[in-house]
Description:
globular; 10 helices; PmbA/TldD fold; 20 strands; 2 domains; 7-stranded mixed sheet; alpha+beta
Amino acid sequence: MTAGDVRSYFSELVTWANGRLTTEEILTCYLAAEDSNFVRFNRNLIRQAGSVSQRRLTLDLIAGTRHASGSLQLSQDQDMDRAAVASMIDGLREQRRVMPEDPYLAVSTDNPSTEQVAVADERDPGSVIDEIQTVAGGRDLVGIYAEGSVNHGFASSIGQQNWYQSDTFNFDWSFYLHGDKAVKNSYGGRAWNSSAFAAKVEAASHQLESLARPALDLKPGRYRTYLSPTAVQQLLRIVAWGGFGLKAHRTKQTPLLQMATDGAGLHPSVRLAEATADGTGPNFQEQGFVRPDEVVLIDDGRLADTLVSPRSAKEYGVATNGASNFEQPMAMAMAPGSLRTGEVLDELGTGLLVGNLWYLNFSDRTACRTTGMTRFATFWVEGGEVVAPANVMRFDDTIYNLLGDELVGLTDSTETLLDAGTYQARSTESARLPGALVEEMAFTL
């Protein structure tokens, strides 16, 4: 079933479902669909290949301030799906009768219908797989390649209709050496570019050669550090856990509490936004509220706007900007700086080159202090040259240091990073971030 067929099927099913409503009822329908192909590599050989085709429909049946919701997987057989939807509507109607009134229920009544279609250039997935294996050569490549079409749709009995289609790919991969030694990388987007992938492979190959050198055990301390765009993303994901949502700010549970109440700030060069227009996700959320192209979260190192879900908007009497109920960014974008990307080793001089971080968590949430471990290829650099890999280290530092007082600069280019998550469905989350050079980063173990 093509994307156009999926859209028509969804529209027809919604129209049919609306005919089963009473005069007092409102029905909202949200479709999350995908047609994805997956290939798993190990030792640069294809170990597993498969595809997923699924359509998940979520219904919310509303009457006044009471509502009940549920989800089901569509079979794409009209008779079976109509029977399943009819049964769910009857069940939701019974549930709604015993549900309490929801004072923060928000219904999309004045949001426009939208269409967002980003179709990639057609390319045979087999040719991409052949290219991956050829370019990787005799190296032990481990990873998962995913590609295909993702569709999201919203429709309500009030008449609003929104549609989103995006064709993307994401290759999450590593060159494995031995033990815990590997060079991790990723490449994702809408159109495969052979030159861009070859450049990533070449850079990873140089790191793999350096990784074969005897590793250093560095003592705990504060080191001049370069954080790759991937490492910056991993730090910001922790901050985004309550960092930018209106409800977290109003209830004083945000990890950016010192910025919100005490005047703390980041480096003036830091500008962070939820850039939906440049992301790979829909410009509307499950209740049908449309997202603006951009919401500036941090500007000149200071808090700007927050992400406001429809429920929070209702609770606090402000306008929503179409955030999800989690009020977390889905398309983070940080403005680049002036540090030349091709000269980061020279700018680092002597210190640590960190490509990945993991096991991140808060060590002091109210101070936005995070802790975690270096992962995969982390290198000790002297005089702008890689000397040796560094064994795993634990860091413990605040965002106010890493992107604030200790920030030397951000790279003059950004990297687009797609979320490789596939829990329930392929993620549409993305980020566009620069690398960051930090004067001193605290390592405790």
